[in-house]
Amino acid sequence: MTTTSTTGADAPPRPTVRPTRDDRRHRWTRRAPLLPALVFAIVVTQLPFLFTLYLSTQSWNALRPGSREFIGLANYATVLTDGRLRAALLNTVVLTASSVIASVLLGLGLAILLDRKFPGRGIVRTLLITPFLVMPMAAALLWKHAIYNPSYGLINGILGGSTDWVSQYPMVSVVAALVWQWTPFMMLIILAGLQSQSLETLEAARVDGAGPWQTFTRITLPYLRPYLELGALLGSIYLVQTFDAVFTITQGGPGRATTNLPYEIYLTTFRKFEYGEAAAAGVVVVIGTIIVATFALRVISSLFRMEDAR
Amino acid sequence: MTRTASPARRSAGRTGAAWTVLAWLAGLLFFLPVAWMVLTGFKREVDAASNPPSWFFTPVLDGYRQVFDRDITPYLLNSVMASVLSTLLVLVLATPAAYALSIRPVERWRDVLFFFISTKMLPVVAALLPIYLLVQDLGMLDNVWTLIVLYTAMNLPLAVWMMRSFLLEVPAALIEAAAMDGADLLVTIRRILVPIVAPGLAATALICFIFSWNEFFFAVNLTATRAGTSPIFLVGFITSEGLFLARLCAAATIVSLPVVLAGWIAQKQLVRGLSMGAVK
């Protein structure tokens, strides 16, 4: 029992001598609490992907029973050569990047507004976080029918005119609804960052004659960087999978103007019933995700070291 | 030095007042769509579809009455069951795992931690087809338990990360002292870990509940009338003919209410939970 480490320190002690039977049992008692969660995660999240790999080699349309056969990589050729997947990829990038960037910037602005005492600060904060708490499906329906509707929507009601926002500016309509929901999330994370900043540093900068703008760009912004990164990263993880808003507000249209990858694969699976193609598209998306996620994990890893160093 | 005494943050004079007004305007602007949703829910359908929008009207409960006439209750119950049970299951799985990744870490705990978070990055849509076929094969389509299992997997990485961050806050000396006094593991857990970690457990449960309650993608593809959850009920309200805005808003208000209230009450835990424990 003497070597038992009870801290979360960086390197757990490793046995330097050859493991005896006792050591081995010891290690398994350590692992035991982890195993149920690990096994569950592997079974539910990893095994389906193996099945996807297999399905991607099949020619299988569920509307034509008995049509199923092995066709090797032909589905990949189909998926990669017709432009739909590429268009969906481009839409996904535009949709994710613009929503994340806009909500981080707005969130930063709001966090700065809230990082000072003023009458009713708690109420304003509560008002601001509410959009994030509204059910995404309810929010999407609300924006589509109560806000964008050309004849009785709120925007035209206030501004006048009869613009059909969703069909004229489809991508902007989807992004605006998402930004409305995700700005509070960014604000909360950035605000936590602002409030953890040491007042002495700010005071010192002021004494040294730095103006508010200088203090902000030279001291506060660099300090906030990990918080901004964290917000952007977590936001991207969720927003890249956007489905509810596209499904509801534009149905991927007009044409394919707002069809992102999740919606495209959903259409292939449950509207065209091209199971083989859908699986191949899924595999391609997973490979793309792994490439992007490798970078993302590096960011998390650096944030993580920062947390350890504290 | 307290925050208010700091000259850097003191809001003084006219600029201070201007910033305050700006903050209030921003808050009201962001809240406006929600307020509009709640207001519209209390209108008659003709008022809801009026042009220009009516701000003053006699509130009626027609919308709400229709929502309950169309039988929202089973959908709400399905949502409650899927969210509560999956949250419990997540906590049961994640807490011991977090323990094995923080207080008594297994070797290569860092890799395990990153494995969990990487499952969150894989696109759900790529797993939909195999899951659908498997669930169909097992005869589990339109069954709440299917959602419970999937929501558990969806929230597990989040919960493991959060619980780990809370467990790391337990002072190592305290656990050592307990071990020295001859307390066995169960006693240590009950007397030392649980009291310290209880708020963290609550924060984790809140986040998992929110994400399960709001989930739509699996629900729409794997359930129909029997196991449908509240977002499925909402979608069913859209009709191509006739006016539906008031009752849609009433329904949207009802299904959003549990999470909005929980989030308002637990604002502080929300921040830490959403950042997976990284922001304290």
TrEMBL record, chain A:
Residues 1-25 are annotated as: Disordered. InterPro entries: MetI-like, MetI-like_sf. It comes from the Bacteria. SUPFAM superfamilies: MetI-like. One of its GO terms (biological process) is transmembrane transport. One of its GO terms (cellular component) is plasma membrane. It is found in: Cell membrane. It is a multi-pass membrane protein. The keyword Zinc does not apply. The chain crosses the membrane at residues 34-55, 88-114, 126-148, 168-194, 227-249, 278-300. CDD domains: TM_PBP2 (cd06261). The keyword Signal does not apply. Keywords: Cell membrane, Membrane, Transmembrane, Transmembrane helix, Transport. Residues 89-296 form the ABC transmembrane type-1 domain. Belongs to the binding-protein-dependent transport system permease family. This is Sugar ABC transporter permease.
TrEMBL record, chain B:
The chain crosses the membrane at residues 21-42, 75-100, 112-132, 144-163, 192-213, 244-266. It is found in: Cell membrane. Residues 76-266 form the ABC transmembrane type-1 domain. One of its GO terms (biological process) is transmembrane transport. Keywords: Cell membrane, Membrane, Transmembrane, Transmembrane helix, Transport. Pfam families: BPD_transp_1 (PF00528). One of its GO terms (cellular component) is plasma membrane. It is a multi-pass membrane protein. SUPFAM superfamilies: MetI-like. InterPro entries: BP-dep_ABC_trans_perm (IPR050901), MetI-like (IPR000515), MetI-like_sf (IPR035906). Its main location: membrane. Belongs to the binding-protein-dependent transport system permease family. This is Sugar ABC transporter permease.
